[in-house]
Structure formats: C-alpha cells, structure tokens
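Task card 7
Instruction: Convert sequence to structure tokens.
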Amino acid sequence: MPDIRILTEGDSSVLVEFGKEISPEINRKITATVQLMKEQHIEGVVDMIPAFCSLLVNYDPRVISYDDLKKRLEILLKMEVTAGEGCRKVYEIPVCYGGEYGPDIENIAEHAGLSVEEANPRIKINAGSVGIGGSQTGIYPLDSPGGWQLMGMTPVKTYDPDREIPILVEAGDYIRFVPIDEDEYKRIRELVERGEYQCTVHEEA
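Output:
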C-alpha cells in the first residue's frame, strides 16, 4: 500500500489519498476505513464520500478542528482493518446489449483487450446506459451528456430519488452484468416502473 496522504479540501473537508491507481487492495482499504470511522462515531464528521483512490471527509469545524481530525485519522489509518476482505456483496444487473441499446458494441468488440478509442461526446445519454471508458465500465444513473462508448442498457434504476436509499450500491459492492434480450428488458422495465423489481444480490467469498 503506497503512503497515505491527508490533504485539506477547503475549510471543512479533508481528502485522504490512498494511492493513484484503481486496485482491489485500495478499494478494500477505503471501504474498511469508512466502516471503521462509522464505528468510531467521530464527533464533528458529517459525511464521508469514498472514490476509487480517495476518501473525502466533510466535517463541522465548529465541532472538531482540522488538526484534531487529522490526528484521529492518522490513528485510524494505522489500525489493522479487515472489512471487505471476507464476503463481498454482488449485485446482478441485467443488461440488454447491442442495437439501439448499445450503439458502440461493434467498435468495443473490435477493440476487445485493447485501449478503447474515444467516442465523440453525446449531448444526451439515457439513464441506465452501460458504457466503457478506458479500463472502466459504468452505468449512467441519470440522463446526461457523456463520451463513453455505449454497449448496452439496464432497466434497473441505479439512482432513484424516491427510494428510501436513492443509490442502489455502496462503495465496496460488486456488480455482475447479466445479459438479457429485448423482451426481458421491457418486462423488467415495467416491473421497475411499478416498484416491483428487486436485483438479485448475494455474497461471495
């Protein structure tokens, strides 16, 4: 694990950098740190936002100072943590590939195993679109502009402001894409719109 750095981010946030590369090891460390901080209930910490290689900690400077928070973080980061090293939660996300659902699938297939050529940014990409950017695969949670190459679409809402927990997955969770045909896509979409669909979720060692 590279040296971890704690940096200031404005007057009420600190950024904990765990490295510069996306890796399972760093992901596990970030997930474990978030879990440990939740268990510690550090007074003054109002939010934690994990990313691929970092953790943004928002705090109330009227409750805890930057220096005190940094000391607490330094102690926590030295602790042995094992969260995320046992079972992992896996969400099965159905995806309809190709055709109008994945207009770039042929180009992606042609370059399988190689760096994907940049697609021209689109003005609007529909929510649920599944795309590839560099070495990453992602789901567009909302209608938005974007430049990733699109290979398919899921009827599942990964973000729904009307749900009790709007975001479907948490940092550290895994996603397995499951191919479906167009008929199954439409069937699941109807269930989603009626609030009757639940993703298959299971744990793996």
